[in-house]
Amino acid sequence: MNANQIINMIMRTVMRQVINKGVNAGMDKAFGKGKAREDMTPEERQQAQAAKKHAGNAQKAMRAARRAGRF
User: Fold this and answer.
1) What average pLDDT does this structure show over 3-11?
2) For the region Disordered, what residue ranges are annotated (predicted)?
């Protein structure tokens, strides 16, 4: 590997991290971070807990689909 390739590799890594932080910040700004647990009603708390569970299940399904797609 020459110096140019190493610099490009490092720059890609840094730029990916910066862009990801920017995208995440934009999403948080656009959709809000949600309420604090103390500010939620019991129904909202239950709904948030269910949404978190469904998001976790979706992530597991995506991982399984990626794994299955390799073969």
Assistant:
1) 97
2) 33-71
DSSP assignment of 12-36 equals: HHHHHHHHHHHHHHHHHHHH-----
37 half-sphere exposure, CB direction, 13 A CA radius? 2
Identify the pLDDT of residue 28: 85
Q: Locate the domains of the chain by residue range.
A: 1-33, 36-71
Q: What type of residue sits at position 39?
A: D
Question: What is the chain's mean pLDDT, rounded?
Answer: 91
Beta carbons within 10 angstroms of residue 40's beta carbon = 15
Q: Is the pLDDT of residue 33 over 80?
A: no
Residues 6+ apart with CB under 8 A from 45: 37
